[in-house]
Specification:
- This is DUF4367 domain-containing protein.
- Keywords: Membrane, Transmembrane, Transmembrane helix.
- The chain crosses the membrane at residues 47-65.
- It comes from Fontibacillus panacisegetis.
- The structure is a single chain.
- With 206 residues, this protein is α+β, with helices and mostly antiparallel strands.
- The protein has two domains: 2-77, no CATH class; 82-203, no CATH class.
- Helices cover 33% and strands 31% of the residues.
- The chain is built from six helices and eight strands.
- The chain has an eight-stranded antiparallel beta sheet, with helices on one face.
Length: 206
């Protein structure tokens, strides 16, 4: 039980906004009216401020304990390990495999940003001209895009060595997903492009 308590305490996060709201309410209370009742404890507002902090934290902890299965970790308490990296080389080192890159972006790229998720999924964001392309890859065969919107146009096509599913609306496409050599990939662009443009972008992944 003690170990579980320390584990939960390490995960409790009180945002600055939450803290400020609680403390404002405490400091706005008129404790002077009840001052006589507390004289024997020699309390002042600073004592009450500290005590309130402890009460608030313990309330959160014991609420979590009541909701936890003590033999298994609750999914609600799982931490999201998201890290930004300086280069594709650094990103590859973190996820444990060579992260591919996209060469044929249909706009001028001004900035490239690299992220890893949970130490196994790689994400590269290409941005410029107020447009964005998000490329993801990870080991396995599940959809790595995270986009579960319903599209009117869904097609299975070939792009070089890849068998790709492209999704969009009205003959234009925003999303491509595929699996190749035990990896899953996705390419998503924030503005719809033609099938030809999407396939050229997919084929340029290497």
């Amino acid at each position: 039980m003690r170990n579980k308590y320390h584990e939960i305490m390490s995960r409790v996060q009180v945002t600055p906004q939450m803290h400020d709201r609680i403390m404002r309410k405490i400091m706005d209370m008129d404790f002077d009216e009840k001052q006589d009742k507390w004289k024997f404890l020699n309390f002042d507002k600073r004592n009450l401020y500290v005590a309130a902090c402890f009460v608030f934290l313990f309330a959160i902890v014991f609420t979590m304990i009541n909701k936890l299965d003590l033999d298994t970790e609750s999914p609600q308490l799982a931490t999201h390990d998201v890290r930004e990296h300086l280069s594709v080389k650094e990103l590859s080192s973190n996820v444990g495999y060579r992260v591919k890159e996209v060469e044929n972006i249909p706009f001028k790229v001004d900035k490239t940003t690299y992220f890893s998720y949970w130490g196994n999924m790689a994400e590269t964001i290409y941005s410029g001209e107020n447009k964005v392309v998000v490329f993801r890859m990870t080991k396995g065969d599940e959809d790595v895009s995270g986009n579960y919107n319903v599209f009117n146009d869904v097609k299975n096509v070939h792009a070089g060595s890849y068998n790709v599913t492209i999704k969009g609306n009205n003959g234009l496409y925003n999303l491509a997903t595929w699996q190749f050599n035990r990896f899953s990939y996705s390419l998503e662009i924030d503005h719809a492009i033609t099938e030809s443009e999407m396939l050229k972008m997919v084929q340029s992944v290497h």
